[in-house]
Amino acid sequence: MSFWSKLGSITKTVAQNVYQEIQKEQAKKAGSNLGSSRNDSPGSNRTQSLSWRYIGTLDNVDDGDLRHLVGIYKAVLNGEIVYIGRAVEFNNGGLKKRLADYTRESESSRKHKSGQLMHQNASDLKMYIMVTGSDSQAANEARELEIEMINRYQPAWNVKYS
User: Fold this and answer.
1) The whole model's pTM is what?
2) Using CB atoms within 10 A of its CB, is residue 91 exposed (0-12), middle (13-18) or buried (19+)?
3) What's 92's domain CATH number?
4) Other CB atoms within 10 Å distance of the CB of residue 66
5) Structural domain harbouring 28
């Protein structure tokens, strides 16, 4: 491995660790940490260090730093997890774009019943995200986490996986 490749790898790892620490601090400040994935997922050590971060209601999410980040999100209505989804397109808007899909005027992203319900309840849905990163490995983690979380919590608006 060349010097530049190694330096790039180290920089990426440090950036991911710093971002995760920032997420934890923000969750503590908001008083909204609903528990880490340590309790939610038996996944890798990397996955076990992740936690849910509250970002507001769906129609008013704090999404400024989510453009290139991927992960999973959950929608909570009246204290119940009603939907768990994923955003895996790190080169196409990431979590920011995926969450915005539900609140757009266009119905192209709401062909399924769950999308329609998300749109109809946007002002009442409390949104939480769990960022897995900003690359293809992180996108794969998000896919696996989504299935694990849906199977664990069985949200009313999700398709069930067996």
Assistant:
1) 0.69
2) exposed
3) 3.40.1440.10
4) 23
5) 3-153
Q: Tell me the per-residue pLDDT of 99-141, one tens digit each, with 9 for 90 and over.
A: 998 888 776 656 678 888 999 999 999 999 999 999 999 999 9
The residues, ordered by sequence, that sit 6+ positions from 73 with a Cβ below 8 Å of its Cβ are 84, 85, 86, 87, 95, 98, 99, 127, 128, 129, 130
Nearest to 50 by CA among 135, 141, 119, 113: 141
Closest-CA residue to 151 (of 138, 142, 160, 140): 160
Residue 161 located in a structural domain: no
Count of domains forming the chain: 1
Residue type present at position 109: S
Residue 125 neighbours by CB distance under 10 Å: 23
Q: How far is CA 134 from CA 7, 77, 93, 96, in A?
A: 18, 28, 11, 12
